[in-house]
Design a protein that fits this description.
With 188 residues, the protein is mainly β. It starts with a strand and ends with a strand.
Length: 188
């Protein structure tokens, strides 16, 4: 985690820095790395979670609060509190499972789940085609937590009608670029 702090008039008082990670406070700055960029008059502090025995999994959200003051010459310090949010993206390749899937409302393999690179960070579109190359389903996938539920196909067409068993071709696009393609088998 790298955060830049600057005050164009008075400079930053690093002795007043208080750093919170989620709800833990880190007043001990000895494990924070500092870098000063003179052209920008900016102090960058670098927090390496492993130095504090923190581990984060893909998909986690990290909240960082920073409290900092400046160093004015003729008045009291101006202080500010800032909140930053970092999202640890999940690493996905092009995936779809189960294959085959059996949408028969028995609660087992009733839909096929799709994943693609930068799944939670990039909105995408899944296009499903039948064996005659006709588009039978278009699925819009938003960013964030709703992506996982949206990126499912239950074997129905655009009108919600069940499609016949068979082999279907899918393509996944992000920002108009093809990122994944393959086949999936619908069995009933």
């Amino acid at each position: 985690i790298v955060i830049g702090l600057y005050d164009s008039m008075a400079g930053v008082d690093t002795s007043k820095l208080v750093f919170w990670l989620n709800s833990d406070t880190f007043p001990d700055h000895s494990k924070l790395s500092w870098t000063y960029h003179s052209k920008r008059d900016t102090i960058y502090f670098i927090f390496a979670p492993r130095a504090f025995d923190y581990r984060y999994a893909q998909g986690d959200t990290i909240y960082v609060n920073v409290s900092i003051c400046d160093t004015p010459d003729y008045c009291g310090p101006n202080c500010g509190d800032y909140l930053f949010r970092f999202f640890i993206g999940e690493l996905h390749s092009c995936e779809r499972f189960p294959n085959p899937f059996t949408p028969n409302a028995d609660g087992v393999n009733d839909y096929v789940q799709f994943y693609y690179p930068d799944f939670f960070l990039e909105a995408g579109e899944i296009l499903i085609f039948d064996s005659h190359e006709r588009l039978v389903k278009r699925i819009s996938v938003p960013t964030g937590g709703a992506a996982k539920v949206a990126a499912r196909w239950d074997g129905t067409d655009e009108d919600g009608n069940p499609l016949p068993p068979g082999l279907y071709v899918y393509i996944i696009t992000v920002r108009g670029e093809l990122v994944c393609e393959g086949t999936v088998t619908l069995a009933r």
